[in-house]
Amino acid sequence: MKPTAILLPVVVQVALTVAVLVAMGPARAASMREKGQRLSDRDVTLGRNDWSDQAIKLANSYRNQFELPVLFYAVVAYALQTSAVDMVLVALAWVFAVSRIVHAAIHIGPNVVAWRGAAFLIGLVALIAMWTKLALHAI
């Protein structure tokens, strides 16, 4: 296994982030059309717009892609730098990436907090395991 195998789950996470961002544009445009708003409206320009539920869910999901995933990107970078990448770390990276896809799908779909929380927890446990494995490698 090549150490760069860990980069594919990273690419998947980045693609998820971009996909949610791209979906947010049309959702916000639809929200503005429904409410008869324009880009020049004061509440829109100052970020106080009353978006539709779908636009809010997408914005929240997009913001989530810059919370826990930041620690994922960091652990992958450090693992590559320290030659700590192995099959276990790659498998954990895939668990994290897939959990984020499931989390985002729930977030922008039915938005059931218990389901979303379970997906989040799976990713969190995988991420903690990655950092623990990296720390043990460094000792």
Outline:
This protein is mostly helical. 77% of the residues lie in helices and 0% in strands.
Q: How does this model look, in words?
A:
The chain has helices at residues 7-35, 42-45, 53-64, 68-81, 87-108, 113-138. The chain has 139 residues and is mainly alpha-helical. Helix 5 packs antiparallel against helix 6 (113-138). The longest helix is centred in the N-terminal third of the chain and has 29 residues, at 7-35.
Q: What is the global morphology?
A: elongated
Residue share in helix: over 70%
The run of helices and strands is HHHHHH
Unreliable runs, pLDDT <50, ≥5 residues?
none
Give a quick account of the main beta sheet: strands, pairing sense, barrel closure.
none
Give the structural class.
Answer: mainly alpha
Number of strands: 0
Instruction: Please give the radius of gyration in angstroms.
Output: 18 Å
- State the end-to-end distance: 23 Å
Strand content: under 5%
Mean pLDDT: 93
Q: How many individual helices? A: 6
List keywords for this structure.
139 residues; mainly alpha; 77% helix
Task: Please write out the topology.
Elements: H1 7-35, H2 42-45, H3 53-64, H4 68-81, H5 87-108, H6 113-138
